[in-house]
């Protein structure tokens, strides 16, 4: 037993002073401060007491968008399930949903099996899978139904990366029709990859090969256009659609418009699109900008993107913050693109920092505490069929709990982070607040600035259908 005493429990509904009684793996009870049960539990010595006075007690973070060990851009994402989930735990994230990848021509089942093999027995925290469909064909469509029954209830399609992951409009429509009949959620990478490849090729032919051209050749309009197109296809198919890593005002406007008409259109954004920009980060001196190459790209600070995205998080046009954690080292990985930005592996690592970074939105007055918890834990659980077990501090839920110290101070650095990366996209960021204690299904993973977990603590999560439809 554990008793988390004296803290403020945060949920989307509000803030309450409550003690939390934790059993073997589950939350047993929420107790009024100084309740008899809390007193006797504390006195009889049967429970470990965790002092949360002046601290926030929040449901463990759920990052619904990670890519551990992703084979991509001629290399592999540098975090394994072991290193990446341990880093997540350090940052107060207790569940990830990673993307298993089916490439064009590959069998969906076999691809998924290889992801199970990579993750099993290696994870520090609980994990589920979405499947990336790189080839929507008859066999893949049939397999979708089976996977939904087996707890893989969401599928990502790409309107970008022709020849790698790309689906054309017909394939997208067919997958959406299937989702409409089996209850799955289609997750969309919305960028017009066909047009982007033309623009990128023209830039490279002019000798514009530095990392910043990665951003310049993927204009926001092409995210806006793809977002609009995917919404129309979803409406025709009668299926919900969820936009991953939304970065641009143009895309947000299309999501907001569809939502104002009551449609089942949802979106997430990521910390990099809220804080980092094209000029200073992607355009950093020399080759340093390569560390910020991700897709969609960082947007210019001259336009309205950052402010619009924070507003979208407040209005719920953006329902979730994920990381799109897809780390690559500078050495030998990002360096593949020294001569040409098109060869830089796309991705930024950040699974460790999401709770801290979005908490800075609370500090800056962009978001409420309730909304921090809602966008980083509760809605992710609801959107992806985990709510009740995850995303909430309530009796019967898994005891995935973070004690967060609002007075803590941290500075992000490659020297202190736990991700397997040789640089940090967040180097020098000052964080007001700190993850103090992390429980995962009742087990202490982080306390006293030490890691107490072990490889294999994390279990596979069979998910239900989305619980978030309007
Ligand atoms: N974007 C990235 O930056 N990396 C992985 C895949 C993606 O869509
Ligand atoms: Zn994507
Ligand atoms: Zn991704």
What are the SSEs and their pairings?
Layout: E1 2-11, E2 14-22, E3 27-31, H1 36-43, E4 48-51, E5 56-59, E6 61-66, E7 71-72, E8 75-76, H2 81-90, E9 93-102, H3 108-119, E10 126-133, H4 138-149, E11 154-158, H5 169-182, E12 185-189, H6 193-205, H7 212-216, H8 220-237, E13 241-243, H9 249-260, E14 265-269, H10 271-275, H11 278-282, H12 305-315, E15 320-321, H13 354-363, H14 369-383, E16 401-411, E17 430-440, E18 443-447, E19 450-451
Parallel strand pairs: 1-4, 1-5, 6-9, 9-10, 10-11, 11-12, 12-13, 13-14, 14-15
Antiparallel strand pairs: 1-2, 2-3, 5-16, 7-8, 16-17, 17-18, 18-19
Bound molecules: dihydropyrimidine-2,4(1H,3H)-dione and zinc ion (2 copies).
Dihydropyrimidine-2,4(1H,3H)-dione (DUC) binds at residues 67, 72, 189, 294-295, 324, 326, 346-347.
Question: Could you explain how this protein is built, in words?
Answer:
The chain is an alpha/beta fold and 470 residues long. It has 2 domains: 2-58 and 393-406 and 433-451, Urease, subunit C, domain 1, CATH 2.30.40.10; 60-383, Metal-dependent hydrolases (TIM Barrel, Alpha-Beta Barrel), CATH 3.20.20. Helix content is 32%, strand content 23%. The protein has 14 helices and 19 strands. The chain has helices spanning 36-43, 81-90, 108-119, 138-149, 169-182, 193-205, 212-216, 220-237, 249-260, 271-275, 278-282, 305-315, 354-363, 369-383, and strands spanning 2-11, 14-22, 27-31, 48-51, 56-59, 61-66, 71-72, 75-76, 93-102, 126-133, 154-158, 185-189, 241-243, 265-269, 320-321, 401-411, 430-440, 443-447, 450-451. Strands 1, 2, 3, 4, 5, 16, 17, 18 and 19 form a 9-stranded mixed beta sheet that branches. Strand 9 (93-102), helix 3 (108-119) and strand 10 form a beta-alpha-beta unit. The longest helix has 18 residues, at 220-237. The relative contact order is 0.18. Bound molecules: dihydropyrimidine-2,4(1H,3H)-dione and zinc ion (ZN) (2 copies). Dihydropyrimidine-2,4(1H,3H)-dione binds next to loops. Residues 189, 244-245 line the site of one zinc ion (ZN).
């Amino acid at each position: 037993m554990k008793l988390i005493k004296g803290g403020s429990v945060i949920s989307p509904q509000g803030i309450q002073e409550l003690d939390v009684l934790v059993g073997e793996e589950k939350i047993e009870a929420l107790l009024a401060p100084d309740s008899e049960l809390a007193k006797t539990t504390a006195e009889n010595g049967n429970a470990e007491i965790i002092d949360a006075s002046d601290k926030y007690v929040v449901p463990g973070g759920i990052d619904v968008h990670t890519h551990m060990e992703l084979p991509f851009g001629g290399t592999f994402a540098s975090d394994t399930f072991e290193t990446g989930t341990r880093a997540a735990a350090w940052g107060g994230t207790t569940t990830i949903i990673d993307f298993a990848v089916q490439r064009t021509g590959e069998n969906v089942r076999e691809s998924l099996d290889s992801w199970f093999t990579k993750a099993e027995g290696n994870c520090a925290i609980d994990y589920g899978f979405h499947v990336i469909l790189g080839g929507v064909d008859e066999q893949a469509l049939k397999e979708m139904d089976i996977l939904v029954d087996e707890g893989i209830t969401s599928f990502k399609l790409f309107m970008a990366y022709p020849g790698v992951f790309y689906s054309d409009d017909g394939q997208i429509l067919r997958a959406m029709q299937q989702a409409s009949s089996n209850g799955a959620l289609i997750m969309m990478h919305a960028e017009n990859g066909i047009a982007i490849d033309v623009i990128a090729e023209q830039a490279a032919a002019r000798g514009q090969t530095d990392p910043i051209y990665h951003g310049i050749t993927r204009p926001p309009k092409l995210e806006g256009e793809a977002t609009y197109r995917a919404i129309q296809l979803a409406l025709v198919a009668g299926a919900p659609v969820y936009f991953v890593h939304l970065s641009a005002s143009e895309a947000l406007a299309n999501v907001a418009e569809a939502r104002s008409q009551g449609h089942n259109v949802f979106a997430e954004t990521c910390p990099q699109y809220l804080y980092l920009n094209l000029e200073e980060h992607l355009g950093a001196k020399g080759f340093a900008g390569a560390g910020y190459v991700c897709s969609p790209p960082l947007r210019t600070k001259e336009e309205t993107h950052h402010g619009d995205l924070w507003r979208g998080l407040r209005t719920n046009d953006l329902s979730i913050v994920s990381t799109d954690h897809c780390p690559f080292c500078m050495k030998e990985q990002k360096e593949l693109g020294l001569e040409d930005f098109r060869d830089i592996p796309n991705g930024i690592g950040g699974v460790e920092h999401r709770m801290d970074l979005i908490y800075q939105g609370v500090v800056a007055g962009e978001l409420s505490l309730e909304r921090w918890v809602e966008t980083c834990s509760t809605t992710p659980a609801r959107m992806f069929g985990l709510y009740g077990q995850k995303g909430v501090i309530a009796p019967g839920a898994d005891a995935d709990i973070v004690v967060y110290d609002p007075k803590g101070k941290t500075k992000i650095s490659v020297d202190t982070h736990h991700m397997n990366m040789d640089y940090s996209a967040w180097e020098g960021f000052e964080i007001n607040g700190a993850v103090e204690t992390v429980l995962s299904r009742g087990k202490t993973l982080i306390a006293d600035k030490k890691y107490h977990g072990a490889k294999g603590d994390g279990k596979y999560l069979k998910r239900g259908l989305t619980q978030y439809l309007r």
